[in-house]
Amino acid sequence: MSYAIFSMICYCVSILLIAPTLARGKTATTNKMFVLLTALAGMILHYLSLHYWQDTTPNGTTMTLLEVSSLLSLVIAILATIPLCLKVRTISFLLPIAYSAAIINLIMAEFIPSQMVQLHQHVFAHIVLSMVAYSVCFIAMLYSIQIVWLDRNLKQKKIMPSADIPPLMLVERHFFRVLLSGEILLTITLISGAFYLAEAFEPTNIHKALFSFFAWIVFGVLLFGHWKWHWRGKRMIIFTISGIILLTIAYFGSKIL
Protein backbone atom coordinates (compact mmCIF):
# COMPACT_ATOMS: atom_id res chain seq x y z
CA MET A 1 0.00 0.00 0.00
CA SER A 2 2.90 2.37 0.72
CA TYR A 3 4.03 2.21 -2.91
CA ALA A 4 0.53 3.25 -4.05
CA ILE A 5 0.33 6.14 -1.59
CA PHE A 6 3.75 7.54 -2.57
CA SER A 7 2.84 7.06 -6.23
CA MET A 8 -0.33 9.11 -5.75
CA ILE A 9 1.68 11.84 -4.00
CA CYS A 10 4.12 12.02 -6.93
CA TYR A 11 1.27 12.17 -9.44
CA CYS A 12 -0.37 14.95 -7.41
CA VAL A 13 2.86 16.95 -7.35
CA SER A 14 3.15 16.60 -11.14
CA ILE A 15 -0.43 17.81 -11.57
CA LEU A 16 0.18 20.78 -9.26
CA LEU A 17 3.26 21.72 -11.27
CA ILE A 18 1.38 21.57 -14.59
CA ALA A 19 -2.03 23.00 -13.65
CA PRO A 20 -1.02 26.62 -12.84
CA THR A 21 0.71 27.08 -16.19
CA LEU A 22 -2.33 25.70 -18.02
CA ALA A 23 -4.62 27.98 -16.01
CA ARG A 24 -2.60 30.94 -17.25
CA GLY A 25 -3.02 29.73 -20.82
CA LYS A 26 0.49 28.38 -21.22
CA THR A 27 2.03 25.01 -21.95
CA ALA A 28 3.85 23.08 -19.26
CA THR A 29 7.34 24.34 -20.03
CA THR A 30 7.90 25.75 -16.53
CA ASN A 31 9.39 23.21 -14.13
CA LYS A 32 9.43 20.64 -16.93
CA MET A 33 12.31 18.73 -15.34
CA PHE A 34 10.47 18.54 -12.02
CA VAL A 35 7.30 17.40 -13.82
CA LEU A 36 9.23 14.63 -15.53
CA LEU A 37 11.04 13.54 -12.36
CA THR A 38 7.92 13.43 -10.20
CA ALA A 39 5.93 11.72 -12.95
CA LEU A 40 8.69 9.15 -13.46
CA ALA A 41 8.83 8.48 -9.71
CA GLY A 42 5.05 8.14 -9.66
CA MET A 43 5.05 5.65 -12.53
CA ILE A 44 7.83 3.54 -11.01
CA LEU A 45 6.02 3.42 -7.67
CA HIS A 46 2.76 2.72 -9.50
CA TYR A 47 4.39 -0.30 -11.14
CA LEU A 48 5.76 -1.50 -7.80
CA SER A 49 2.31 -1.15 -6.22
CA LEU A 50 0.94 -3.84 -8.54
CA HIS A 51 1.15 -7.25 -6.92
CA TYR A 52 0.94 -9.38 -10.02
CA TRP A 53 4.46 -10.86 -9.80
CA GLN A 54 3.45 -12.35 -6.41
CA ASP A 55 0.72 -14.43 -8.07
CA THR A 56 2.63 -15.67 -11.10
CA THR A 57 2.19 -19.32 -12.06
CA PRO A 58 3.45 -21.37 -15.03
CA ASN A 59 0.05 -20.75 -16.67
CA GLY A 60 0.22 -16.98 -16.35
CA THR A 61 -0.51 -14.19 -13.89
CA THR A 62 -3.47 -13.66 -11.60
CA MET A 63 -4.60 -10.09 -10.91
CA THR A 64 -7.75 -8.44 -9.67
CA LEU A 65 -9.89 -6.66 -12.22
CA LEU A 66 -9.07 -3.29 -10.67
CA GLU A 67 -5.35 -4.09 -10.76
CA VAL A 68 -5.71 -4.68 -14.50
CA SER A 69 -7.44 -1.31 -14.77
CA SER A 70 -4.63 0.25 -12.70
CA LEU A 71 -2.01 -1.31 -14.99
CA LEU A 72 -3.88 0.11 -17.98
CA SER A 73 -3.86 3.58 -16.43
CA LEU A 74 -0.10 3.21 -15.89
CA VAL A 75 0.40 2.45 -19.60
CA ILE A 76 -1.69 5.54 -20.46
CA ALA A 77 0.41 7.69 -18.10
CA ILE A 78 3.65 6.41 -19.66
CA LEU A 79 2.47 7.00 -23.24
CA ALA A 80 1.22 10.48 -22.32
CA THR A 81 4.52 11.42 -20.64
CA ILE A 82 6.83 10.31 -23.49
CA PRO A 83 5.79 13.21 -25.81
CA LEU A 84 6.65 15.69 -23.05
CA CYS A 85 10.23 14.44 -23.20
CA LEU A 86 10.13 15.04 -26.96
CA LYS A 87 8.85 18.61 -26.47
CA VAL A 88 5.45 17.98 -28.06
CA ARG A 89 3.53 21.18 -27.33
CA THR A 90 0.05 19.68 -27.49
CA ILE A 91 0.50 17.12 -24.70
CA SER A 92 0.42 19.46 -21.67
CA PHE A 93 -3.38 19.51 -21.38
CA LEU A 94 -3.55 15.72 -21.37
CA LEU A 95 -1.10 15.05 -18.55
CA PRO A 96 -3.24 16.16 -15.56
CA ILE A 97 -6.12 14.02 -16.85
CA ALA A 98 -3.88 10.99 -17.41
CA TYR A 99 -2.28 11.33 -13.97
CA SER A 100 -5.66 11.90 -12.31
CA ALA A 101 -6.95 8.71 -13.93
CA ALA A 102 -3.91 6.86 -12.58
CA ILE A 103 -4.60 8.19 -9.06
CA ILE A 104 -8.25 7.10 -9.22
CA ASN A 105 -7.26 3.63 -10.42
CA LEU A 106 -4.64 3.31 -7.68
CA ILE A 107 -7.23 4.17 -5.03
CA MET A 108 -9.72 1.66 -6.41
CA ALA A 109 -7.12 -1.11 -6.80
CA GLU A 110 -5.87 -0.63 -3.23
CA PHE A 111 -9.11 -0.15 -1.33
CA ILE A 112 -11.92 -1.79 -3.33
CA PRO A 113 -12.06 -5.60 -3.58
CA SER A 114 -12.76 -7.04 -7.02
CA GLN A 115 -12.81 -10.39 -8.75
CA MET A 116 -9.66 -12.17 -9.90
CA VAL A 117 -8.77 -12.54 -13.57
CA GLN A 118 -6.22 -14.85 -15.17
CA LEU A 119 -3.76 -13.42 -17.71
CA HIS A 120 -2.55 -16.49 -19.58
CA GLN A 121 1.11 -16.74 -20.49
CA HIS A 122 0.52 -17.96 -24.06
CA VAL A 123 -1.41 -14.79 -24.96
CA PHE A 124 0.93 -12.38 -23.17
CA ALA A 125 1.93 -10.59 -26.40
CA HIS A 126 -1.74 -10.15 -27.35
CA ILE A 127 -2.58 -8.75 -23.90
CA VAL A 128 0.28 -6.22 -24.04
CA LEU A 129 -0.71 -5.19 -27.57
CA SER A 130 -4.37 -4.77 -26.59
CA MET A 131 -3.38 -2.61 -23.60
CA VAL A 132 -1.20 -0.36 -25.77
CA ALA A 133 -3.97 -0.11 -28.40
CA TYR A 134 -6.53 0.87 -25.76
CA SER A 135 -4.13 3.41 -24.22
CA VAL A 136 -3.40 5.09 -27.56
CA CYS A 137 -7.13 5.30 -28.35
CA PHE A 138 -7.77 6.73 -24.88
CA ILE A 139 -5.12 9.40 -25.45
CA ALA A 140 -6.81 10.21 -28.77
CA MET A 141 -10.05 10.73 -26.83
CA LEU A 142 -8.23 13.14 -24.49
CA TYR A 143 -6.97 15.02 -27.55
CA SER A 144 -10.55 15.38 -28.82
CA ILE A 145 -11.59 16.84 -25.45
CA GLN A 146 -8.63 19.22 -25.63
CA ILE A 147 -9.71 20.42 -29.07
CA VAL A 148 -13.25 21.19 -27.87
CA TRP A 149 -11.93 22.93 -24.73
CA LEU A 150 -9.42 24.98 -26.68
CA ASP A 151 -11.92 25.94 -29.39
CA ARG A 152 -14.55 27.02 -26.85
CA ASN A 153 -12.14 29.07 -24.73
CA LEU A 154 -10.65 30.79 -27.77
CA LYS A 155 -14.10 31.71 -29.08
CA GLN A 156 -15.17 33.02 -25.67
CA LYS A 157 -11.82 34.83 -25.33
CA LYS A 158 -11.13 33.18 -21.97
CA ILE A 159 -7.64 32.51 -23.32
CA MET A 160 -5.93 34.57 -25.98
CA PRO A 161 -3.88 33.22 -28.90
CA SER A 162 -0.18 33.36 -28.08
CA ALA A 163 3.08 31.55 -28.68
CA ASP A 164 2.38 29.48 -25.55
CA ILE A 165 -0.96 28.15 -26.83
CA PRO A 166 -0.64 25.33 -29.40
CA PRO A 167 -2.53 26.18 -32.60
CA LEU A 168 -5.90 24.46 -32.85
CA MET A 169 -5.00 22.96 -36.22
CA LEU A 170 -1.81 21.49 -34.75
CA VAL A 171 -3.75 19.86 -31.91
CA GLU A 172 -6.25 18.50 -34.42
CA ARG A 173 -3.48 17.14 -36.63
CA HIS A 174 -1.90 15.38 -33.63
CA PHE A 175 -5.31 14.00 -32.66
CA PHE A 176 -5.83 12.29 -36.01
CA ARG A 177 -2.27 10.96 -36.04
CA VAL A 178 -2.76 9.43 -32.60
CA LEU A 179 -6.17 8.05 -33.57
CA LEU A 180 -4.74 6.54 -36.75
CA SER A 181 -1.97 4.90 -34.69
CA GLY A 182 -4.61 3.54 -32.31
CA GLU A 183 -6.67 2.19 -35.19
CA ILE A 184 -3.63 0.43 -36.65
CA LEU A 185 -2.78 -1.08 -33.26
CA LEU A 186 -6.42 -2.11 -32.77
CA THR A 187 -6.40 -3.78 -36.19
CA ILE A 188 -3.28 -5.77 -35.25
CA THR A 189 -4.89 -6.62 -31.90
CA LEU A 190 -8.00 -8.01 -33.60
CA ILE A 191 -5.86 -10.09 -35.96
CA SER A 192 -3.64 -11.38 -33.15
CA GLY A 193 -6.72 -12.12 -31.07
CA ALA A 194 -8.12 -14.29 -33.84
CA PHE A 195 -4.75 -16.05 -34.08
CA TYR A 196 -4.08 -16.58 -30.38
CA LEU A 197 -7.59 -17.00 -29.06
CA ALA A 198 -9.18 -19.88 -30.87
CA GLU A 199 -12.12 -19.66 -28.48
CA ALA A 200 -12.73 -15.95 -29.19
CA PHE A 201 -16.17 -16.63 -30.61
CA GLU A 202 -17.30 -18.89 -27.77
CA PRO A 203 -20.33 -17.52 -25.90
CA THR A 204 -18.15 -16.41 -22.97
CA ASN A 205 -15.81 -14.32 -25.15
CA ILE A 206 -17.91 -13.30 -28.14
CA HIS A 207 -18.62 -9.87 -26.62
CA LYS A 208 -14.89 -9.06 -26.60
CA ALA A 209 -14.54 -9.63 -30.31
CA LEU A 210 -17.82 -7.92 -31.17
CA PHE A 211 -17.36 -4.75 -29.11
CA SER A 212 -13.71 -4.44 -30.16
CA PHE A 213 -14.82 -4.78 -33.77
CA PHE A 214 -17.58 -2.17 -33.24
CA ALA A 215 -15.01 0.23 -31.75
CA TRP A 216 -12.70 -0.44 -34.71
CA ILE A 217 -15.56 0.45 -37.09
CA VAL A 218 -16.40 3.66 -35.20
CA PHE A 219 -12.79 4.86 -35.25
CA GLY A 220 -12.46 3.82 -38.89
CA VAL A 221 -15.60 5.74 -39.90
CA LEU A 222 -14.28 8.86 -38.16
CA LEU A 223 -10.89 8.61 -39.86
CA PHE A 224 -12.50 8.03 -43.26
CA GLY A 225 -14.95 10.89 -42.66
CA HIS A 226 -12.11 13.24 -41.80
CA TRP A 227 -10.10 12.16 -44.85
CA LYS A 228 -13.07 12.30 -47.25
CA TRP A 229 -15.33 15.04 -45.86
CA HIS A 230 -13.02 16.81 -43.35
CA TRP A 231 -15.11 15.91 -40.32
CA ARG A 232 -14.22 17.78 -37.12
CA GLY A 233 -15.88 19.47 -34.18
CA LYS A 234 -18.71 17.78 -32.26
CA ARG A 235 -18.86 14.84 -34.65
CA MET A 236 -15.20 14.14 -33.90
CA ILE A 237 -15.62 14.00 -30.12
CA ILE A 238 -18.87 11.98 -30.32
CA PHE A 239 -17.24 9.29 -32.46
CA THR A 240 -14.11 9.16 -30.32
CA ILE A 241 -15.92 8.88 -26.98
CA SER A 242 -18.34 6.32 -28.44
CA GLY A 243 -15.39 4.25 -29.68
CA ILE A 244 -13.59 4.28 -26.34
CA ILE A 245 -16.81 3.33 -24.52
CA LEU A 246 -17.23 0.33 -26.83
CA LEU A 247 -13.59 -0.62 -26.30
CA THR A 248 -13.98 -0.35 -22.51
CA ILE A 249 -17.04 -2.61 -22.63
CA ALA A 250 -15.04 -5.08 -24.72
CA TYR A 251 -12.18 -5.16 -22.21
CA PHE A 252 -14.11 -5.05 -18.94
CA GLY A 253 -17.79 -5.63 -19.73
CA SER A 254 -18.09 -9.35 -19.07
CA LYS A 255 -16.14 -9.08 -15.82
CA ILE A 256 -18.44 -6.38 -14.46
CA LEU A 257 -21.82 -7.62 -15.69
UniProtKB/TrEMBL annotation:
Superkingdom field: Bacteria
Listed GO biological process terms: cytochrome complex assembly
Species for this entry: Alitibacter langaaensis DSM 22999
Domain Cytochrome c assembly protein: 51-256
Keyword field contains Transmembrane helix: yes
UniProt-recorded Gene Ontology molecular function terms: heme binding
Signal peptide (from-to): none
Name of protein: ABC-type uncharacterized transport system permease subunit
GO cellular component, one term: plasma membrane
Keyword match Phosphoprotein: no
Source lineage: Bacteria, Pseudomonadati, Pseudomonadota, Gammaproteobacteria, Pasteurellales
Keywords: Membrane, Transmembrane, Transmembrane helix
Ranges annotated as spanning the membrane: 6-22, 34-53, 65-86, 93-112, 124-150, 178-198, 210-229, 236-254
InterPro entries: Cyt_c_assembly, YpjD/HemX
